[in-house]
Fold:
Amino acid sequence: MRKLFTIGYEGAQLADFLAILARHKVSVVVDVRELPLSRRKGFSKNSLAGALAADGILYQHEKALGAPRDIRHRLRDDGNLAIYFRGFDRYLATQATALQHVAETCMGNVALLCFERDYKTCHRSSVARELGRLADLVPVHLEVEGHGAVRKAAGVYPRQGVPAT
Structure:
């Protein structure tokens, strides 16, 4: 890896998402959703992989680096990000093989993909921290332009345990 980015697609249009990847010369997108499905047009595994390929970007799904169902559902039920991240970080500590695989096989500029716009509320920040440690890189968190306006208009605010930005 030359550079390590993270990106969320919440509220984004596919064209804007692809443009930010191109701007940062991303060569590989590593999808860290446990289930790479989306109601958002263009962001489910197969259609996203096709759109990325058309732009010369490789797609790799790493299910083992996704947040397991029980951890996601606990967050859905209690909204407590501190508990969520403690649980996910314990899980991630068991995924050294998957992290090492990504660190060793992903060449070029790599972007970790998940849904959440704000990396501070997404497990990908933990994945990025650990991959950055393995690859001796400082992760850069990208944002698709217009995300903030979409969240404000929808009345979406941070969950418990994370300060508002």
